[in-house]
């Protein structure tokens, strides 16, 4: 995990946390000892099981449906808005709910059909540990949401629409009077970039520390909604499966623990973070689908050669039942991914977000699968191909292109976005920063790239490549060279069918379109600019930013 907190810890601000913010606050970690704190225990008020952690937190769980009905921290109720509780999805309905105490741990179990859900409290901690086991598709469960009362944490950030009264898309994207856009989708972060999410007043912090997402889908670069804030209250999410711009099938099984954590205003303890948290105390609790540390394995790589050291490399494991990832060490590419469920996985090495190497690995319980040095073939990285010119670089993301960073936390219509139109001249020094990260049929289709060729270059055929990272409504590039040669309309690659470009996500399936441009298409006058017009082809989509579109990774003309 890497990154830095987004926001300060000042009065009435919020924080999107990352592992880099770990060490400063030893505030809410698991207790090393076994002694029970004064007041620790549970009771039954007739409608709810009431758990006193023996610290500063008392919470209630409905005996009827397993909703979290109360979160009282230091005497203040934080849970609930609009008459709604905190729960799986929008509530499970009538369930079987039980409670048991085992030493310094209290476990509440909720059964609804094939779905099993758990809350655990540890003596002396201001935490609620949560697991959800969705066994199959018979029960809808795509999230856990902690609903928080209005007015306790105020903000005006990208995923807030408290101050954004105008709806501009699908009843979930809003515009403020100053033209800035807001939506719960605009989290800014990939899943690998954060360990916790929440708010702080400076004296009280309320967080969800995410699970390791081994049963989630989409991989390390996936983006989903994490939090929202509106006039009626706020929500913190642990996404069990998010279908928007999703590239993988849903995985089933036990997800967790994810942790609802209160602090005195600082970050949650790094001991709660995914990859750090240990739960040996839960080994004997009987949680359905739970696999202890001894039942898991590890994958380790000696190193990776053939890397471009200007970029970070990530190693991902993906199987039908689980997913994992870890960072490759910048000095030599060493990596280690622990806590892996036994099974077969596809191991992928990513340069940035671009897959440049794959192999298969098998993980066994209690074992370490050690890989010798991985050598990335030069041909696997498209950046290694000799090019006459190149816009951007092949990283699997639109990083560096115009508006690319803004689009992870704003709508394309946002007043802060630079114009989506405008042509590009090779050799200007601004080729990448001037080229828009997204192209739409109804917005900027037909953008022109100007470039010159030497006599030798103009005398030969060349391959043009356009890399994309996702598409909306089957948008794909068709090109015209010098208004004389027109490419065929390429077939659309497999991409997610939902919204993407307007909800903060460029992460779909990376794909490279290639065009064989004949020598007859080039201008023979070496002082004249050739023109490459890039259009978006598709009969799908509607209008404006919901017309067919695509996100750009890199464009180059090969030598």
TrEMBL record:
UniProt keyword annotations, A-Z: Cell wall biogenesis/degradation, Disulfide bond, Lyase, Secreted, Signal
GO molecular function list: carbohydrate binding; rhamnogalacturonan endolyase activity
TM spans (from-to): none
Domain of life, per lineage: Bacteria
Matches recorded under InterPro entries: Carb-bd-like_fold (IPR013784), Gal_mutarotase_sf_dom (IPR011013), Galactose-bd-like_sf (IPR008979), GH-type_carb-bd (IPR014718), RG-lyase_II (IPR029413), RG-lyase_III (IPR029411), Rhamnogalacturonase_B (IPR016590), RhgB_N (IPR015364)
Name the UniProt record assigns to this protein: rhamnogalacturonan endolyase
Record has Lipid metabolism as a keyword: no
Cell wall biogenesis/degradation in keyword set: yes
Entries under SUPFAM superfamilies matching the protein: Galactose mutarotase-like, Galactose-binding domain-like, Starch-binding domain-like
Signal peptide positions (record): 1-37
Catalytic function, reaction form: Endotype eliminative cleavage of L-alpha-rhamnopyranosyl-(1->4)-alpha-D-galactopyranosyluronic acid bonds of rhamnogalacturonan I domains in ramified hairy regions of pectin leaving L-rhamnopyranose at the reducing end and 4-deoxy-4,5-unsaturated D-galactopyranosyluronic acid at the non-reducing end
């Amino acid at each position: 995990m890497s990154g830095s907190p987004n926001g300060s810890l000042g009065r009435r601000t919020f924080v999107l946390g990352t592992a880099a913010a770990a060490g400063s606050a030893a505030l809410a970690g698991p207790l090393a000892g076994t002694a029970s704190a004064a007041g620790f225990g549970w009771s039954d008020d007739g409608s709810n099981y009431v758990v006193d952690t023996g610290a500063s937190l008392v919470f209630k769980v409905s005996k009827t449906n397993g909703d979290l009905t109360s979160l009282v921290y230091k005497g203040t109720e934080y849970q609930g808005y609009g008459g709604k509780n905190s729960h799986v999805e929008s509530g499970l309905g009538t369930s079987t709910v039980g409670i048991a105490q085992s030493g310094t741990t209290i476990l509440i179990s909720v059964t609804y059909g094939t779905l099993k859900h758990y809350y655990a409290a540890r003596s002396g901690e201001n935490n609620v540990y949560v697991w959800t086991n969705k066994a199959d598709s018979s029960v809808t469960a795509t999230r856990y949401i902690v609903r928080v009362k209005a007015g306790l944490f105020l903000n005006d950030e990208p995923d807030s629409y408290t101050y954004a009264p105008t709806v501009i898309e699908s009843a979930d994207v809003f515009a403020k009077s100053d033209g800035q856009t807001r939506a719960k989708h605009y989290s800014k972060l990939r899943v690998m970039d954060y360990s916790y999410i929440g708010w702080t007043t400076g004296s009280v912090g309320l967080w969800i520390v995410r699970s390791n997402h081994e049963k989630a889908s989409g991989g390390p670069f996936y983006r989903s909604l994490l939090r929202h804030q509106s006039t009626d209250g706020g929500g913190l999410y642990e996404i069990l499966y998010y279908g928007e711009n999703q590239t993988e099938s849903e995985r089933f099984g036990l997800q967790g623990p994810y942790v609802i954590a209160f602090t005195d205003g600082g970050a949650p303890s790094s001991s709660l973070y995914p990859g750090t948290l240990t739960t040996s105390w839960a080994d004997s609790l009987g949680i359905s689908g739970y696999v202890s540390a001894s039942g898991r394995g590890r994958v380790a790589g000696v190193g990776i050669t053939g890397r471009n050291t200007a970029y970070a490399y990530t190693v991902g494991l993906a199987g039908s039942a689980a997913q994992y990832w870890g960072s490759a060490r910048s000095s030599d590419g060493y990596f280690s991914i622990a806590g892996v469920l036994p099974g077969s996985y596809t191991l992928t090495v990513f340069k940035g977000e671009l897959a440049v190497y794959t192999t298969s690995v098998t993980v066994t319980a209690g074992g370490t699968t050690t890989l010798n040095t991985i050598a990335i073939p030069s041909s696997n990285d498209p950046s290694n191909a000799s090019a006459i010119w190149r816009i951007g670089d092949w990283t699997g993301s639109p990083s560096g292109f115009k508006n690319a960073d803004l689009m992870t936390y704003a709508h394309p219509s946002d007043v802060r976005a630079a114009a989506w139109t405008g042509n590009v001249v090779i050799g200007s020094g601004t080729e990448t920063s001037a080229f828009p990260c997204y192209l739409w049929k109804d917005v900027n289709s037909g953008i022109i790239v100007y470039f010159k060729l030497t006599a030798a270059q103009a005398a030969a055929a060349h391959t043009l490549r356009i890399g994309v990272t996702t598409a909306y409504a089957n948008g794909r590039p068709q090109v015209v060279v010098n208004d004389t040669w027109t490419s065929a309309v390429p077939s659309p690659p497999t991409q997610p069918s939902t919204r993407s470009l307007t909800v903060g996500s460029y992460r779909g399936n990376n794909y490279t379109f290639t065009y064989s441009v004949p020598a007859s298409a080039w201008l023979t006058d070496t002082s004249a600019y050739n023109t490459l017009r890039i259009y978006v082809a598709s009969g799908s989509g509607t209008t404006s930013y919901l017309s067919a579109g695509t996100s750009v990774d890199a464009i180059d003309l090969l030598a």
